[in-house]
Amino acid sequence: xxxxxxxxxxxxxxxxxxxxxxxxxxxxxxxxxxxxxxxxxxxxxxxxxxxxxxxxxxxxxxxxxxxxxxxxxxxxxxxxxxxxxxxxxxxxxxxxxxxxxxxxxxxxxxxxxx
Length: 114
What we know:
- By secondary structure, this protein is of the alpha/beta class.
- It has a single domain (about 1-114), classed as Dna Topoisomerase Vi A Subunit, Chain: A, domain 2.
- The chain is about 55% helix and about 15% strand.
- The protein has a four-stranded parallel β-sheet with strand order 2-1-3-4.
């Protein structure tokens, strides 16, 4: 979570952004769907980001957008962080990023109960 809180995070849309806002401290969330991918990656480059977390849904559209985002980030000199995506989606058993808060709180409750 610390990595996420302080990073540039690329998400698909508004619902995903709203789901992550409560968990961000110093990080920046950029939306990349609906033709915003190139401008979001350029903005991350202007912010001197060295790395960005791609946090798209685990569905066909999200996987395709994730691959495009990887290429666009690299074209802007930014390292795409896919490991954090893989871990978060796996640990939280998350398919849709818009459910991040609910799944995160469920996992926290599960861990504190045990």
